[in-house]
Design brief:
This protein has 262 residues and is an alpha/beta fold. It contains 14 helices and eight strands. The longest helix has 22 residues.
């Protein structure tokens, strides 16, 4: 259960090698990811398993806006300095254009602090405490950088696309231990410039195969459905094979309905 999925291993290796600092994760992104005896959502898996040593992890979607799941003190302090007592802060953190602009400014500030630290002892003291590693996770990215050309999308979405491209292409960002992740169920729903960017890596999250599904059924029988062994007429391996093609969430729902209607 502690072994990383293949897509996560590829992501880790690409980032460690310096080959990519932006990742487009697509496919079975609304399923749970088993790890360490827990079933985590994909964003939670990224936060807890892929970025546990990061000083700041920012997550964004259009519904909940930008929130810091790690490093909230530094992010909040910077927001206070940058915006003061802005009355429409919630709206600024939720709307894609202003949210990405704030994230972009925060990343630039961090890069500048790191650069200052290399110039003199005085500057190094002033920049002490700046985050050394930052991860940005954009969920439902198809609503931030949607498919279409600049004329069709208009200025706001075009600006979002330019920012996302910059996060992948700017050497200052890629060399500063800053990683950006865009999560979307369908890669084809994202802007073509983002998808085709050679500086970003696309990672497909597959549906669980037969072996993985059989193992998941055994976990469910142990943790959530103790009555399953007595009520199923086939071995768990056969049940897993029959459920293959569903997500883990879908399989759990199917088993729950079957037990309820038994």
């Amino acid at each position: 259960m502690n072994e990383l999925p293949r897509w996560a291993v590829e992501m880790r290796d690409l980032f460690r090698s310096g080959s990519a600092a932006q990742f487009l994760i697509h496919g079975n992104v609304f399923d749970v990811v088993p790890h360490g005896g827990k079933l985590l959502s994909l964003p939670a898996f990224l936060d807890e398993v892929m970025f546990p040593s990061y000083d700041v992890v920012l997550r964004y979607d259009r519904s909940r806006g930008v929130r810091a799941t790690r490093g909230a003190d530094d992010w909040g302090s910077w927001l206070d300095q940058a915006l003061g007592r802005e009355g429409n802060l919630a709206s600024l953190l939720r709307e894609p254009g202003s949210a990405l602009e704030l994230i972009d400014r925060y990343l630039l500030r961090t890069i500048n602090l790191k650069a200052l630290a290399t110039r003199s002892p005085e500057a190094a003291g002033a920049s002490r405490g700046a985050p050394q590693r930052i991860a940005v996770i954009v969920e439902f990215a198809e609503f931030v950088v949607p498919r279409g050309d600049a004329l069709q999308l208009g200025g706001g979405f075009a600006a979002n696309t330019v920012k996302v491209l910059g996060w992948a292409n700017d050497p200052a960002i890629t060399q500063a231990n800053i990683v950006t992740v865009l999560v979307s169920e369908g890669l084809h729903d994202l802007n073509g410039l983002v998808v085709d960017n050679p500086h970003a890596a696309s990672l497909h999250v597959p549906l669980p195969d037969e072996a993985a599904m059989s193992g998941y059924v055994q976990v469910l029988a142990t943790t959530q459905f103790p009555e399953l062994p007595a009520k199923t007429e086939v071995p768990f391996e056969t049940l897993g094979a029959r459920l293959t093609g569903l997500s883990r969430v879908g399989a759990r729902t199917a088993i729950s309905l079957a037990l309820r209607n038994d």
